[in-house]
Amino acid sequence: MHRDRTTTGSPSALRRGACPTLAAPMQTGDGLLARLRPASGFFTVDAFLALLDAADAFGSGRLDITARGNLQIRGLRAESVAPLSAAIAGAGIMPCEGIAVEMPPLAGLDPSEVANSRPLARELADRIGDSGLHLAPKLAIIVDGGGRLHLDGVTADIKLVAQAASGQPLWHLLVGGQQTGLAGTGDEMIEAAMSVVGRIAACGPAARARDLPADRLPSSSSSLVKRDIAMSPVGRFDLGTHVVLGVAPTFGQMEAQAVRQLVLAAMAGGLSEVRLAPGRALLFVGPAGRETSALALLAKALGFVVEADDPALRIDACAGQRGCASARIDTHAVAEHLIAHAPALMDGSLDLHVSGCAKGCARPRAADLTLVAAFCDGQPGLGIVVGGRAGDSPVATKRLEDGACAITALGQWVAETIEKGESAAACLKRLGPARIAAAFSGARFNGIDHAGL
Ligand code: SF4
């Protein structure tokens, strides 16, 4: 017997009588945090309302949507985890257990996808579950049939990507982000993916694709055609049979009370399903033709991002001092200062990260620029990391009271230095870390807004 471990498809584990459990909650600065991905890939609005009630009753009422599209329930205590699990089960939500096989959030709905990812993802998840292999809990596996919200921008240890060949989907295998040159039917690529899963397991229970010896991988050939960048999940999508409105909580964090208002309004407007999307978005799905402009206006009034070009979507920021006891800076204030006072950095070409401590919860991978709590001359400060993670050494630090000025100065310097037609990313690359550090820590503060963070 196996459980449904996919992130979409029918909740077959419910039918099989499996016992739903939340993945082991993690300790954070504001208590325990439970991460939830529904095995069905979506929530009914009724189930989502029940989940929000449970987050309020058993947690702090604060929730996050992660960059990969997982839901995090914050502020739990050890004794509140079991009643939260029971409430989630009572709402008919089956959490995805074991190794999740992720797929595009509009899988099965989007007429522009090359293939519906669901059947293949379910098959692969079941094969992995039945294999008995000991795999790293964070092993990331994606089945991507394409479409508007394809997952090219999401990293994975193993990826199956569909592209059309003579009108039929041809599935390509990627391992550790690299093409393997292997492509074939869905059945053939399940076998190929399982072979890689087995080789990863043979490297140890914590192994990832990066641990595979290079000579154990098939040789690469560039058979995969580069796709257009995926659309932002924020906005309205008319998909033929369905309409979707995507909104994003600012910096991925939201209060259950605010989301409840939004879900009730979506329900009243005939939208019956909630999905989560990579890019920290909340998707409301309903039948084609439903009006969504009033819902978008309400979302905006409640502080959600409703436009795909909103600069807040360009910044990964953790809860910071507004929700985490480990934080030493107000990450949201830093991010808002970046948006308001350093517009030259907000052209969309840069990956920006603001972190309340070196742990870097909001973005485990490197960013072009990371602003992180640091110490400067033994005092609380703000550091800037270039091309690295929150835990890497900053190229410069400023005392916290000078942090706002340093961000403004860096933005002004880029605005003055950037060449015609050049992006901010290209400009910073041309100038290099030493000059970025000089601009951030320099004495160019005359006439610059000194508003604190
Ligand atoms: S990175 Fe942010 S959310 Fe994570 S522990 Fe540090 S301050 Fe808290």
Outline the secondary-structure elements:
Blueprint lengths: L11 H4 L10 E3 L2 E6 L6 E2 H14 L3 E4 L5 E6 L4 H10 L10 E2 L15 H14 L9 E4 L13 E8 L2 E8 L2 E7 L1 H17 L32 E4 L3 E8 L3 E3 H13 L4 E5 L3 E7 L5 H9 L2 E2 L9 E3 L13 H11 L10 E4 L11 E10 L2 E10 L7 E4 L3 H15 L6 H18 L12
Parallel strand pairs: 6-7, 7-8, 17-18, 18-19
Antiparallel strand pairs: 1-2, 2-5, 3-14, 4-5, 4-13, 8-9, 9-10, 11-12, 12-15, 12-16, 14-15, 19-20, 20-21
Bound molecules: iron/sulfur cluster.
Iron/sulfur cluster binds next to loops.
Describe the structure.
The chain has 3 domains: 1-96 and 233-309, Alpha-Beta Complex (Sulfite Reductase Hemoprotein, domain 2); 106-216, Sulfite Reductase Hemoprotein, domain 1, CATH 3.30.413; 313-441, Sulfite Reductase Hemoprotein, domain 1. The protein contains 10 helices and 21 strands. The chain has helices at residues 12-15, 45-58, 81-90, 118-131, 186-202, 256-268, 293-301, 331-341, 403-417, 424-441, and strands at residues 26-28, 31-36, 43-44, 62-65, 71-76, 101-102, 141-144, 158-165, 168-175, 178-184, 235-238, 242-249, 253-255, 273-277, 281-287, 304-305, 315-317, 352-355, 367-376, 379-388, 396-399. Strands 3, 11, 12, 14, 15 and 16 form a 6-stranded antiparallel sheet that branches. A 5-stranded antiparallel sheet has the order 1-2-5-4-13. The N and C termini lie far apart (54 Å). The relative contact order is 0.09. The structure holds iron/sulfur cluster. Iron/sulfur cluster binds at residues 28-29, 318-320, 324, 326-327, 355-357, 359-361. Pfam families: NIR_SIR_ferr.
